[in-house]
Design brief:
By secondary structure, the protein is of the alpha/beta class. The protein is built from ten helices and nine strands. Strands 7-6-5-4-3-2-1-9-8 form a nine-stranded parallel beta sheet, covered by helices on one side.
Length: 292
Amino acid sequence: MALTGDIRVSFEFFPPKTEAMEATLADTIEKLAPLNADFVSVTYGAGGSTREPTRRTLAHVQKQGGMDAAAHITCVGSTCEETDAVVREFTAMGIRRFVALRGDPQTGMGTRYVPHPGGYENAAHLVAGLKAFGDLDISVAAYPEKHPESPDFATDIDMLKRKVDNGASRAITQFFFDNDTYERYVERARKAGIYVPIVPGILPIHNFRAVSNFAGKCRTHIPAWLAERFDGLENDPKTHALIASAIAAEQVLDLVDRGVRDFHFYTMNRPDLVFAVCRLIGIREETVDAAA
């Protein structure tokens, strides 16, 4: 485990679509592997759209990086039998960790979700299906600012509780930039009887405009102070990167002061900022003793 004191980190990758992206991913794995993450998760497209690239990426993480891989699995656009077939394929590779997600509607984020005929109805149902495969480690999603489709926090927390009651080991949050928001969410969850770890999802900001646009779609609040720090840096990537790594490190260290010890980084398959943040919070690469 990657420990600084008792801080643990995990990383998220996505399967590449082109040869150039394959090379970028290889560089990302090579740079982050020495940090010895607790695990590395690999995303999965709705309806199995990235099934083969996800499988290759999982194998790459296991072989090149020597890291414990977690496969994302979604139930959008698939029957239970089709989803189960993917789980069997991944477990045959030695995958024992999964990130169970409903997935965005195939008609696009923000549109109405309709369960696939004969498919898992939602993430809670999917977790129950995964548990039927044995002793798997299952992570699920949590939303500090509630899921965009949830009418209120009570409904949102109830869904999280159903996922945990069905066997989830931990929850990993959507990215956020206000630590008070995360802390209030954890308090709501604990009051509802949810006691699994709720791991903060940290997104170092590689491109402020792109992150702002995505945040708007998933209704993640961008504080005014955050926007001000990136103001005028559109054509200054070096300063942008310095500011981004400092902000992410500040966020993590503040959460450490609040008692948080586990962090999940959304890498966007770009290692530099995540590597810098890990260095800033005190995590160092593991080295092999030549005399060993």
